[in-house]
């Protein structure tokens, strides 16, 4: 949260009379918060000594989530240059609940500061509702956590239980405990209970006798033929809805039939099996767990009413709402009321001492049932039967419901058998049984999805820096593609799969990363990472195999709370901090700030440098490290292994025959990243020699277009360091006047925009300013700031024009250009400006003619 505490800036907690006591009374669990003191009670000490309202809101936001069953602990509050403005950072497990907790925390602290009441119970109830609607269920969550333990990432694909595990072509999908390879026919069979009975019976597997009825008359006839007691259930249904067990006469049958008919018009009436309710879980054809289940029930004490006994059971700290705890609280629903009516019971009546009263017909944990693990007691014949059932139905993960005296002996035909099979069976009863040994059933499930012997990694190469990100990332993607890989790229020009753009626009944030990582065809992901996306929404991935940190300079200072170069460097350093232990961090040894962050880099460090005698390079090589350097015009890899001469910089087209030193640095960084990935040197050499500064391969990045009598460069460079770097290249390309069509960036602070203008005046002879997007400023305001920066630097006023329409500004440049001149067009939206430049080319050059067909 960006929080304005207003007048409370002058009122820390110790100045608010009675505030701390009111807060502790309302949320006593805050006494366990350690804060900076480091132990329980630390936060309360801070409150009594005096701390800011923003800091208090942080702790309250965390504790509200904990009280709603979402344990979180990390939080930080930072001040800003703004008076009373604070950045409040805290962890959440469910985003909707996290946002609500922040809003509620501010309201709660404000109310208590003013000695007003606050309804915390309603807030916690709302947070619980958000948790239940948005948090992954226990089964899916156990699978995700098991996958993460193995380094397999997870992407949630909807607000329910659809999750992608792994990236790219190695991804697998689960929805609850169904997989992308779960048989659709198997699910359909499991959903049709009578069809299941027929298949299993034909295979010699015991099932209860029964038939399907579509009317009460038919149901009554079937029940009388079978003999009471019978079980009544909808042919299609789940979660125990509409099921009635041990229906004992025609009167009870009428009620049971109506309940089942409301779920499905085909109703199964079958002979009641005798014994306990068991659930067996089979994954990948192997029995992995078994539990004896008991429906929600109470036991009388001779004095307490049914409702009082329910309340006593629900007071068990193991019970909670939905999936928040091991057991679920018992609620009274239509099924419960029907069971009470069958036995002439009411909620107000007392229950005899020792008498057990069932409140549900089915033993589902989600309705308050309990489970006892019996996996170790399953008879070999029962094990074989269940594993056969999984194959007969055709399910990779199946729950098998059995009614029998026990599973420690073969099932007796006629009185015991399989009553149902379930697609997407719940894991909760096995992960955390009420009694007995917990079974880590997520492990065999993930083993089935990702066999341990197979490499399921899709390498991620993440590139950050102030300048050069796009070019370096595209060079890496290009080289990988032409080495035979299917590459996904996301950056400021859009998203491309195998070199084909699928989405245009700036996708250098986490949304671009997610599009690529969700793509099922790719085997490598190359991601350009900008600081804005990191600050606002994070990276879009948990870890990467290669992190490239090119450079850092004073761009975007004063934006998104980043106040100086050190803060900006730490934001960008996030990319190298998440490099895997087995991965590689590529750092610029020529940038002292970047090199100084080596202690934050994950994996193995590879430096790159334009200076082979760079002291950092020398020390790194002396310690057995690896570096890629420019040495006598050649790209060379030094390491404990034999030195590798990759190629001459003259063979890398984007260096413009060595004139574009900034692109030489980008090539060195790309070579370091590709070498770190283990790509053979001949493939690296092929990649850098075939990557051109063309509009097709690297649009908007040093695209040089020859108009025969003059040249035009289209380039994205939009900050002072980029202008200075361009200034070192242009003298190698022309001796004529240099004209620029440029724009400032309105979101920068005034001083940066003026510095941009001063830099333009050092490089160009004519400046045409076109500010199509004021970005929150008044029209022409940014252009006037750029102009003032140029004039303050001694530039002639007559050589600066403001033409805020980009097309007209470009046309003006073509009006004043003379033979031997060079126009540099600074682009923001690449495609429209490239089209505009090429339209001028077509007008000036005329129709193209093929003079000779080249082989």
UniProtKB/TrEMBL annotation:
* Catalytic activities: [L-4-(L-arginin-2-N-yl)aspartate](n) + L-aspartate + ATP = [L-4-(L-arginin-2-N-yl)aspartate](n)-L-aspartate + ADP + phosphate + H(+); [L-4-(L-arginin-2-N-yl)aspartate](n)-L-aspartate + L-arginine + ATP = [L-4-(L-arginin-2-N-yl)aspartate](n+1) + ADP + phosphate + H(+)
Which part of the chain is the ATP-grasp domain? 197-450
A Pfam family annotated for this chain is Mur_ligase_C
User: Which enzyme type, at the first EC level?
Assistant: ligase
Keyword Ligase assigned to the entry: answer is: yes
Tell me which InterPro entries the record gives. ATP-grasp, ATP-grasp_RimK-type, Cya_phycin_syn, Cyanophycin_syn_N, Mur-like_cat_sf, Mur_ligase_C, Mur_ligase_C_dom_sf, Mur_ligase_cen
Provide the alphabetized UniProt keywords. Answer: ATP-binding, Ligase, Nucleotide-binding
**E.C. designation(s):** 6.3.2.29, 6.3.2.30
PANTHER family recorded for this chain? CYANOPHYCIN SYNTHETASE, MUR LIGASE FAMILY MEMBER
Q: Relate the assembly described in the record.
A: Homodimer.
Q: Which family does it belong to?
A: In the C-terminal section; belongs to the MurCDEF family.
Q: What does this protein do?
A: Catalyzes the ATP-dependent polymerization of arginine and aspartate to multi-L-arginyl-poly-L-aspartic acid (cyanophycin; a water-insoluble reserve polymer).
Supply the name of the protein: Cyanophycin synthetase
